[in-house]
Design goal:
The protein is α+β, with helices and mostly antiparallel strands. Helix content is 30%, strand content 25%. Strands 12-11-21-20-17-18 form a six-stranded antiparallel sheet, with no helix packed on it. α7 runs antiparallel to α8. About 6% of the residues have low confidence.
């Protein structure tokens, strides 16, 4: 399940997006009316992706994006923009947003954008150990006109960046978005010469019927069927570069680069990458990102801060699925699906009041509250138990690693307490 938080002060727009996303069986949708409330919900529990309106009365979406990027760097944000707010949306992309959807295209683009970001996030979680042993890498590919190859190539680049490049997960996600957009452009706009009348799908999605028909025709046309996509991926600790070239006729980049929605992903690419170059023909793009250097931020807009006073340092839970960290802010913590719980896990296999975590003699303990799917400690189902540092505790199917120091919490020696 993907937990999505919608942030919008407009009840009509909120209901529209809620209704649209709730139709997806694997989306768990939450809503918020303000940036401050959104940050409080994120502090309390698991949110995978935030979809926020750009303009709200208490703080605009730009400030919220900054706050999420600062306090919840593992959570991507997607902006919903009204006509005329493209300039602010561009600034938000600079501040850390993973993407944006114009309000006029919510029905067509919102679900697709969320799924694309989620798939890229999921790929972060595999191949980690192997990637960590790589010091420098370069890949060269010559791809056939097969859309199914794109997610695999993007995944490989993303996992290699995880082990080699000096950047956090959100930066890797943004770089992966750029590579995917360039590959989709090369395939559909370049080699297949698909015009703006068709909506271009992500690499793992089926094209609409009209586009499928056109692709089938061109795959059987000698003019198109032998065309290739050539890709160069270079990943170093402080620099990532992608070069993507198709065999199409190219396009006039100078004439199209200033458009707010040109259908080629150039808005995202221009904001996520430090250098973007096209060859003279317009069928090859070079994208370069310099890592380890923080951009200057001269904006005077207020940044919404996470309330650090609520963080008291009793330990943390780290999700085995996503790597997200949840602070254990008090000595007695209620875990469940309801928003009133201290730790909120908004998934259907977690009961409203699933279990309780509490400190006894300096050790964290857990007690099941007659939940539907129970709790496990290191894979063994138990009604209650003592959690040692680094133990794995499961709430339903959701696994968390607990990290804390018993000595710092008052434990004497290494003997765990006995629970009645």
């Amino acid at each position: 399940m993907v937990s999505i938080l919608i942030v919008d002060d407009s009840a009509i727009d909120r209901q529209l997006m809620d209704g649209l996303l709730s139709k997806e069986s694997d989306f768990d949708v939450w809503t918020s009316t303000s940036a401050a409330d959104a940050l409080e919900q994120m502090r309390q529990g698991m949110i995978d992706i935030v979809v926020t309106d750009l303009q709200m009365p208490d703080a605009d979406g730009l400030s919220l994006v900054r706050s999420i990027n600062e306090g919840f760097s593992e959570v991507p944000s997607i902006l919903v923009t009204a006509h005329g707010s493209e300039q602010i949306a561009s600034q938000a992309l600079d501040e850390g947003a993973a993407g944006y959807v114009p309000k006029t295209q919510i029905a067509q683009k919102l679900v697709e954008t969320i799924r694309n970001v989620w798939l890229l996030m999921q790929s972060e979680r595999s191949y980690e150990k192997l990637a960590q042993h790589t010091t420098k890498t370069e890949f060269k590919f010559e791809l056939d006109n097969d859309a199914s190859l794109i997610p695999s190539l993007v995944d490989m680049a993303q996992q290699t960046m995880k082990g080699v490049a000096d950047c956090e997960s959100m930066e890797r996600l943004r770089l992966s978005v750029c590579l995917e957009q360039a590959l989709l452009n090369a395939l559909y706009h370049g080699n297949f010469e698909v015009g703006a009348s068709f909506s271009i799908p992500a690499g793992d999605e089926l094209p609409e019927e009209g586009l499928r028909t056109l692709i089938h025709e061109r795959l059987n046309d000698p003019k198109y069927n032998n065309r290739k996509i050539r890709v160069l991926v270079q990943i170093k600790r402080r620099r990532v570069s992608f070069v993507v070239r198709d065999d199409g006729n190219g396009f006039d980049y100078e004439a199209e680069k200033d458009l707010s929605d040109d259908g080629r992903g150039l808005v995202l690419i221009n904001h996520f990458m430090d250098e973007v170059k096209f060859n003279e023909r317009g069928n090859e793009i070079t994208m370069i990102k310099h890592l380890g250097l923080k951009r200057e931020n001269d904006s005077k807009d207020p940044v919404l801060k996470v309330d650090e006073s609520k963080r008291s340092g009793y330990g943390i839970l780290i999700s085995e699925q996503s790597g997200r960290e949840i602070e254990l802010a008090t000595k007695r913590v209620l875990v469940g699906r309801r928003k009133s719980c201290h730790v909120v896990i908004p998934h259907s296999d977690v009961s409203s009041h699933h279990c309780q975590l509490f400190i006894q003699e300096g050790w964290w303990c857990v007690k099941d509250l007659e939940s539907s799917n129970g709790i496990k400690i290191n894979g063994t189902k138990v009604p209650h138990g003592v959690l040692g540092p680094e133990d794995l505790v499961s709430f339903g199917r959701h696994e968390y690693r607990i990290k804390y120091s018993p000595g710092e919490l008052g434990a004497i020696g290494v003997t765990r307490p006995t629970l009645g």
